[in-house]
Each structure stands twice: as C-alpha cells, then as structure tokens.
Amino acid sequence: MPAAQKRPHRVAVLVQHGVIPFELGIPFRIFRGAKNRDGEPFYDVLTCTPEGPGQVRADADFEISVAHGPEALEDADTVVVPAAHEQSSAHTEGRNPDPLAAALDRIRPGTRLVSICTGAYFLAAAGLLDGMRATTHWSHADHFQKLFPQVKVEPDVLYIDNGDILTSAGVASGIDLCLHLVRRDHGTAVANASARATVVPPHREGGQAQYIRRPLPEPQLATTAAARAWALGRLDRPLTLRELAGRESMSVRTFTRRFREEVGISPGQWLVAQRVERARGLLETGDLSVDQVARKAGFGTAASMRQHLQSALGVSPTAYRRTFRK
User: Fold this and answer.
1) What angle do CA 244, 135, 174 make, to 5 degrees?
2) Are 298 and 240 in contact (CB under 8 A)?
3) Among the residues of the chain, which ranges form H helices?
4) Bridge partners, 14 (sequence order)
5) pLDDT (0 to 100) of residue 13
6) Is the dihedral of CA 153, 155, 157, 159 positive or negative?
7) Mean pLDDT of the chain
8) What is the pLDDT of residues 130-184, one digit of tens each?
9) pTM for the full predicted model
10) What is the pLDDT of residue 222?
11) Which of 169, 176, 205, 244 is deepest in the core (most CB within 10 A)?
C-alpha cells in the first residue's frame, strides 16, 4: 500500500466580533498562495470563533459566516489571532472574555501562535507573552505596554519571531509576518511566489517606525534610498558606512540618523539582513559551494556567513540548503 500522504499544515484563524476584514484575509491569501511544484497547497486554512459556528460582526457594514467553532483549534498547527475593533476586557483590563479564554485553552502545547496588529492583546491577556518581546500597532504600543508591563514591547518593528509565538505590528504588517512564516517553513522561493501572486514585496525594509507621523522641520531633506539601491548592487564587496553616507553627500552621523528614521534599523543591521537574504537565495537555487555563496553574499568567509545565518535563522548554511534545496 502507498504511504499515507501527510496532510497540509493546518492554520486556524480565530475571529471575534469587530474583526477587520483586511486582516482576516491576510492568512488566507498568503498561506493559500504557498504551493509545491505540483501546485498542491502547503497549508489548509480555516476560520473559527470562540463561541461556535455562526455570524461574526466585521468592522464594516457586513457580517461573516464562520463555519467552525473553537474545536477547530484542537488540531491546528498554527493559530492566527487578528485584531478585533470591538473593545473587550482584554483591551481594558488585560483579561480575556471567558469564551475566548476557554477557546485558547483548547490549543495543544507546541502549537504556533500568531497575532496580527492588536490581536497581540489577546495573547498577552492569556499570559502567553509574559517575559517575551512583542509588537503591535504603533498607535497602541504605549497603552499595550502599560496594560502588560511583563511584556517587552518593541513598537518600531514589523514583526517579532519568538519561535512558536509571533506578533506583527499594525494591519498590513500581517502580510510581512505570514510571508516570513512561509519563508521559514518552505524557503525563499515559495514565499516569493506567494508574494508575487499577491502583488506585494516579498520582504519589506525596516519597521513600522517609518509609518508613524512625525513633524518634519525640513521637508526638502534627502533620503537614503539611493545609497540602499547602490549597496544592493554591491553586496558581494565590503561596504563602509562612510561610502554609503558619501553616496548621499551626508556626514556619517547624519546618514546614520536619517537611515534609522527611514528604515527602522541601523545601516549595519540592514546590510546583514540583505546579505542573509542573498545567501538564502543562493543556497536554495544554485550549485555554488558554501565558500562561494559566502563571498557572493558579502560575508567574505564561510565562517562569517555561518555565524550570521545561525543567528538569523537558527541553522547552518549546510542545514539550510539541505532543507530548502529544490
């Protein structure tokens, strides 16, 4: 008899009254766009509610008919909790409503938990983020931190990956987080294909800090975009901060400050992230040796690349290639 086929990774999206339709659609669009070479989906995505099948009020002028109740959480591999704009005790007292608390208790240990935007309130109210780094929509970050002082809130990033618990920043950053999960599960090529089908960038630079409104005393200020574009074409060679600043005719100090304001991270962090992405693509698709990949990605040596990939991905270049090589 042929071996039984492994079922797709099951994603349960837990929705509540006031759910934002855009955020509800993100997991379906991104995860369902992740397919193998035969066009078969890697993920099975379904929607459930804490109180059983039925109608859920959206943050719009319509309701959503949900076919599954909280029992769907029991065999989920990943649970996604989007934001809900109807205020509950989670937002005011830091305590989940009883039906939601009971639903979350159904989730098996080791299940991956994901929040989108202010969905982080529900994970924090359940005590799941205690002692962890987390993020949420920038406009709620201060309130979230005061309500949950045991959580280390980082308001400037697009998402935070704690392994089995992940949180995303405001609204569309849920796309970034879901693409990150596809990339983590199945590699860059699959994530890029899902991104192309959705017509979004496979990887956005920086964090949500760049979207926060701030007074601009000098509206005519130049940006660092040209330096970033120039660097992307030269990742295989050593690049200094002075060179990057010189591309924009700025001092190193001014360039570093402007870069962080625009991108959300330092130039050095950005360069490492770009080189890690370049290395991942080369390891997945090419026949270059690890030493050659290290040089082309700009790490110089295999030892340096190994250190950076281990830090960013938790695996060595050889292990990564073995997992994702097509």
Assistant:
1) 85
2) no
3) 21-32, 89-92, 98-104, 120-125, 141-147, 173-186, 188-198, 225-232, 241-247, 252-263, 267-285, 290-297, 302-313, 317-324
4) 48
5) 98
6) positive
7) 89
8) 999 999 999 999 999 999 999 999 988 889 999 999 999 988 999 999 999 999 9
9) 0.74
10) 58
11) 169
- Angle at the Cα of 97 (from 92 to 127), degrees rounded to 5? 75
Residue whose structure tokens are 């073995």: 322
Residue ranges of the chain with per-residue pLDDT less than 50: 1-4, 210, 213-220
pLDDT at 215: 45
**Dihedral in degrees, nearest 10, Cα atoms 306, 307, 309, 313:** 130
The candidate with the shortest Cα–Cα distance to 321, out of 289, 283, 295, 292, is 283
Q: Say which residues have a Cβ less than 8 Å from residue 82's Cβ, sequence separation at least 6.
A: 13, 14, 15, 19, 20, 23, 24, 26, 27, 115, 116, 117, 119, 174
State the Cα–Cα distance between residues 188 and 193, nearest whole angstrom: 9
Neighbours of 219 (CB within 10 A): 5
Give which of 300, 294, 303, 78 is closest to 184, Cα–Cα: 78
Contact at 8 Å (CB) between 99 and 50?
yes
Residue pair 293/285 in contact (Cβ under 8 Å)? The answer is no
Report the distance separating Cα 310 and Cα 322, nearest Å: 15
